[in-house]
Inverse folding.
């Protein structure tokens, strides 16, 4: 009998790979894989700790590999969006949530949610500045990106759509 794909097998596979590739430290982050309308998507809740951005890239690599997608652009875009959210939020603002999904045309949908209401914008960076290039990178590697403010000043979602190629 051949291999048969199922959402529960996929879920088990992603969790096993994530655990096998490094220590799981629930006090720093937690990972939840969610099922979305016959497609498997991922969600990662990130605590206020810049060291976790490496774990964000690992998570994006795992999901991208399961979808047969190159991980370079998704990892870089996720790193930039999560780092921006962590940089502009304070400890009392709470966690940052990264969600991955697929669009109808099989591109990667990525969104990062935080509770700050300050909307990001592309900045002019000078040659020596260490900040100010993140959204320029997101803009160059994404088909499109944008911001959706949440109702009742509950924060915002910054999203990007990344083509498979």
């Amino acid at each position: 009998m051949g291999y048969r794909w199922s959402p529960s097998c996929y879920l088990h596979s992603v969790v096993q790979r994530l655990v096998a590739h490094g220590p799981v430290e629930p006090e720093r982050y937690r990972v939840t894989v969610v099922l979305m309308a016959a497609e498997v998507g991922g969600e990662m809740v990130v605590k206020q700790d810049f060291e976790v951005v490496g774990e964000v890239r690992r998570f994006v690599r795992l999901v991208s590999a399961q979808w047969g997608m190159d991980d370079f652009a998704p990892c870089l875009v996720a790193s930039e969006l999560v780092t921006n959210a962590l940089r502009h939020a304070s400890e009392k603002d709470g966690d940052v949530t990264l969600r991955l999904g697929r669009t109808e045309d099989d591109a990667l949908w990525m969104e990062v949610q935080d509770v700050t209401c300050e909307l990001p914008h592309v900045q002019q960076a000078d040659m020596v500045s260490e900040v100010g290039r993140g959204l320029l990178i997101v803009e160059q590697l994404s088909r499109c990106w944008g911001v959706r403010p949440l109702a009742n000043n509950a924060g915002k979602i910054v999203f990007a759509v990344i083509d498979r190629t």
In short: The two ends are 34 Å apart (CA to CA).
